[in-house]
Each structure stands twice: as structure tokens, then as C-alpha cells.
Amino acid sequence: MTAAIIFLIILSALVLIHEAGHFFAARLFGVKADEFGYGLPPRIVGMVKVGKTWKKVSAKDQKKYANTIWSFNWLPIGGFVRIKGESGENETDPDSFHVKPIWQRIIILAAGVCMNWALAAVLLSAGLMIGVPSLTDGIPEGAIVHKTEVTIGGVLPGGAAAEAGLQPMDILVSIGGVQANSLDQTRQEIFARGEAPVEIVFERGRDRMAVTVTPKYVEELGRTGLGVSLLDTGIVSYPPVLAVKNGIILTGLYTKAVVITFLDLFRELLNGDGTLASQVSGPVGIAAMTGDVAERGFANVLQFTAILSINLAVLNFLPIPALDGGRVMFLILEGLRRKPMNRRVEAIVHNTAFLILIALIILITLRDIGRVFGG
Predict the structure, then answer these.
(1) Is residue 230 part of a domain?
(2) In sequence order, which residues have a C-beta less than 8 Å from that of residue 112 and are 6 or more positions away?
(3) Structural domain ending residue among the three candidates 187, 211, 237
(4) pLDDT truncated to tens, each residue of the chain (375 aa)?
(5) Does residue 57 form part of some domain?
(6) Are residues 233 and 163 in the same domain?
(7) Which residues cross the membrane (predicted)?
(8) Which residue, 35, 95, 247, 257, has fewest beta-carbon neighbours within 10 Å?
(9) Nearest of 217, 315, 218 to residue 266 by alpha carbon
């Protein structure tokens, strides 16, 4: 339940930031926002400024007001902004979306994903100031290591560690009663045990556990071992200027990685390979991951939220109808044709694509439910 609440808070923040980008860009260019809502309709209640006073707007009130309606809605997932004229109504009014130059409309549409990228940079920078788990080898000058740990980077399938239940990202506490203080010292302690069973105490999230592992011969190494790769890690923090610099750099690197992943996904789908597609998670899968991340601390939640924000930005700006990228694509076509697109045809294309996207989300969600609750 806690994981679901944290996930809803994160998702709502990401969507509201996205919609706020559209809102502020629209207002910058004199386009009216009919309504800005938290959650998805139907409306619970709204408020709108009429003259110098605020008026309550009921769920049944469909009247057009001169100012923006600020509303709370029944489905507490994200939010929305209704830009005047975006759906084709009142599109000849001077404060309507479609009367503005194409470049202004593109900026309004792109502002949402830009806000998601900006949010990611802010969150990553904040996480770097607080301190995040990181490799301590080759950290930039000026970085501060608060706590050193020996972390399992990988587990060999079928190896002694895998059979004992050890997993990547487990933090080693002790080997046979000897504290795991550094990578070299821990390796020496493991090798000194030979083939004798050894008790390993480790941390996974907030839990501390112990297992007894009997080393096995590892063909890849040509000797007996646990079958793990170990990393020197620590809680690394940065001064503000360095944190902001690295936060921006990380945002670019994560964006590149996400774009490459999407390209690989589309390439596999075209080739009939569903390997990556089988790993895609929907709301339920991400909510389950949120719980695991939350156990690792606040800085990890910031980093996870930043990565989700980048994913949302990239996904939203793909040239797919119904998404911001698809709408920008239609505006570019409008500019090339030098005349407006057929609004009815454009609406049919976007609505059809939206229904297909919803169907895909439902299928992925059903698969995630089977994974999470079906064992």
C-alpha cells in the first residue's frame, strides 16, 4: 500500500509538471487555458476567478469562463490542462491555440517534455547533493565519500552465491565474522576460506540477513569461488555547483540511454522479436519497483523519479499520434503544406491512436499483475 501511495505521488508530480509546462507556455503566447485540473475527470469541484472574487464551479457547470478553472477530479492520477482551441473549438478566437504561428504552437506542445527534462536535472542534482550510492573508483575531484561499502555487482547463474540466494545490489556486511570494509580486503577474506563453508551477512534494502555459502569451482575463473563480482561503492555527495553540473550531464546520459532503448524496442518489434517488449512495465510494474527503490532511501527515490521523468519526456515526444510528438509532427506537415490540416481527420487519427495506446497499457498492466501477484 505504501509503495502504491508513493507511486501515485510520483506519477501525479510528473504529470502535473508536464501539464504545467503546456500551461505556462500557452499563457506566455496569449493562449487561454480553459481548465487546469489535478486528477482525471469527472470533476469533484473547481474554482475560477470572476472579477475580484473566486467562484465555486460544480461538476455539472459547463459554462465558459474568462479565466482558468482550477479543479480537483475524481481519479487521483496526474492531471490535465485544456488549452482553448486545441481540440478545434473556438479556433478562430484571438486567444485560441490554432490562431498562433506554428512555431509558437510547437513550443507550447514541447514545453511539457522540457519541464520533465528540467525536473529530472533538478532531482538528479538534489540527489547528488544529498548523496547517492555510487562507485568510489574514479569519482570526480571535489566529491565526498560518506560511507564505503562492498556491493555485489553481479551473480553467476548456478554459482555458490546464486544458490544461496544472494542478488546483485546486496551489500556485504561481513565474511565469516570479519567486517567487509574494502573490496581488496573482502576478496582476500573470501580466498582465504578456500572451499570451506562461510557465513555471509548482507543487507538488502532495510533488511539484514545471513546465509551460509559453500564455494564452488568456477570454470570462468579456473578456481574455487563464490561466483560473484564485487564493487567498491559508497554514498557519494557533491558540492552544489558540481552537483548541478553532474545532474545536467546525467540527464543527458539517461536521455541517450532511454532513446537507444526505444529505438532497440521498435527495431525488435519490426523484426518480430519480443525480448525487450517482454521487459516493458506498466503502472503496476512500476509501482512494485517504487516500493523496492523506496526501501533504499530518499536519494534513490529522487533518482528513480528523475529516470521516470526522462522516460515520460522521451515517450511523449515520439512522433506517434495522440502524443505531443505526434501533434508536433502534424504541425510540421501543416507548415510544409502551407495550409491547415483537416481538423476532423487529425482528430480521428489522434483518437484512434489514443485508443490503441490505452489498449496496450491495459495489456501490459494485466501482464504486470500476473508477474507481481502471480509469483
Answers:
(1) yes
(2) 18, 19, 21, 22, 316, 324
(3) 237
(4) 577 788 888 989 999 999 999 999 999 999 999 999 999 889 999 999 998 899 999 988 988 899 999 999 998 888 999 999 887 777 789 999 989 999 999 999 999 999 999 999 999 999 999 987 777 777 777 788 877 888 888 888 888 888 888 888 888 899 888 888 888 888 888 887 778 888 989 988 778 989 998 888 777 767 777 888 888 888 888 999 999 998 999 899 999 988 988 888 788 777 766 555 566 666 667 777 777 777 777 888 898 899 999 999 999 999 888 899 999 999 999 999 888 878 788 888 888 888 888 888 777 777 767 766 665
(5) no
(6) yes
(7) 102-124, 347-366
(8) 257
(9) 315
Helix (H) or strand (E) holding 374: none
How far is 113 from 129, CA to CA, in rounded Å?
24
Residue the block writes with cell 487521483: 76
Return the amino acid letter for 130: I
- What size, in residues, is the chain? 375
- pTM, full prediction: 0.80
What is the distance between the alpha carbons of residues 343 and 98, in angstroms, rounded to a whole number? 10
